Amino acid sequence: MTALLSPARTNALECSVCAWSASADPALWRCPACGAVVDFASAGEPSLGLGLERDGGEGFVRYAAWLGLAQPISLGEPVTPLVTLAAAGGAEIKNEALLPTGSFKDRGAAALISWLAARGVAEVVLDSSGNAGAAIAAYAARAGIACEVHVPATTSQAKVAQARAYGARVLRQPGPRAASTVTAQQAAASRRLVYASQIWHPAFVLGVETLAFELWEQRDPLPESIVMPVGAGTLLLGVARGFDRLLGAGLIERVPRLIGVQSASCTSIAIRFGAAAPEHPPARSIAEGIQVADPPRAGQIVAALTRSGGTALVVGDDLIAAKVSALGREGLLVEPTAAVALAGLDRARDLGVVRPGERIVAIVTGSGLKTVVDA
Ligand SMILES: [Zn+2]
To answer: How far apart (Å, rounded) are the C-alpha atoms in residues 77 and 57?
Structure first.
């Protein structure tokens, strides 16, 4: 692949809040000055070149140079297809379940592990609700990096078994999702391991930019709106940054409107856009992948939604479960978190947020093969 972008793009970090910046160090996962999330110093700069060569692979590995990753770790990813569905009211879905480990997390995991492998990292620890742990474990295995994953005790058994199949050490932690974050960060600190967090590490969000690049190659004109679940926000931020970079490079004329969807148990982003807080919010949702009460990147998520002209909505488990069933009857087995986008699309139509006839893509984030045994 022609180097369209210098790998130097991923060599410096800057704080998202204060003025701190420094050379990128695998041991740094947040700002040492103020504790906020960090990003690569040149993230968002219009630095894409024209023309992708076809000999660099077929899926998102083709964009490695655009990401500043000189030696991408790949498991042979496909371009995920766009499919028109009745369950989406005639809109298209982008089926990310077809990536190697069954979720969109492979985009971020591939970039994160490629970045760490290039810096000689031998062992990582992270926390996950399931899919990111499996994805990072798989790419770590591919790179020969040892991997320890802390998951909530409630995580789907198949996701735990999947990460273990890739050779990861998986530790189930009692308590809420946040408890596994605490134990993973403690393990990183006490054993001097690299904390390969899909939420905190900027290389993970960087990899998700490829979803926007693929949509740009797949659809001209681009969809007017893109609907997706929001948990930690790495999907939304990756897509937003990918489109921002295409816009900055003059490759597109406008960014699609982004619509984020949360479950009734975690509504902090949607409330910022005027959604009513549930009077009695449930402690958990069947959408385990977006069970993130207080996203560290919340400020960035709200800014990205606002900049695109979009919004955030809340959907209940009843509508999510109905969409899982409807998708199954059309031949697609998805996990509840992946049906959130379609539930949100129905809600957006009810609220008049999207117009009839609008070109819409809903992102189906993960396979139902991992959760069907829990139903
Ligand atoms: Zn800072």
So the answer is: 9
Distance 38 CA to ligand 1 centre (A): 8
Ligand 1 centroid to Cα of residue 371, in Å, is 38
- Cα distance from N-terminal residue to C-terminal residue, the chain: 44
Give the closest residue to 97 by CA, choosing from 348, 338, 359. 338
Query: What average pLDDT score do residues 96-114 get?
Result: 97
pTM, full prediction: 0.93
Which residue would you say has higher pLDDT here, 374 or 322? 322
Task: Tell how far the Cα of 14 is from the centroid of ligand 1, in angstroms.
Answer: 8
DSSP letter at 374?
G
What DSSP string describes 183-245? Answer: HHHHHHHHHT-EE--TTT-HHHHHHHHHHHHHHHHH-SSPPSEEEEE-SSSHHHHHHHHHHHH
Report the pLDDT value the prediction gives residue 3, as an integer from 0 to 100: 38
User: By the 8 A CB rule, do 140 and 105 touch?
Assistant: no
Q: What is the pLDDT of residue 42?
A: 66
Question: If you measure from the C-alpha of residue 298 to the centroid of ligand 1, how many angstroms do you get, rounded to a whole number?
Answer: 15
- What six digits make up the tokens of 352? 């008049």
CA–CA separation, 42 and 154 (whole Å) = 38
Q: Say what the pLDDT of residue 374 is.
A: 53
DSSP for residue 369:
T
pLDDT at residue number 116: 97
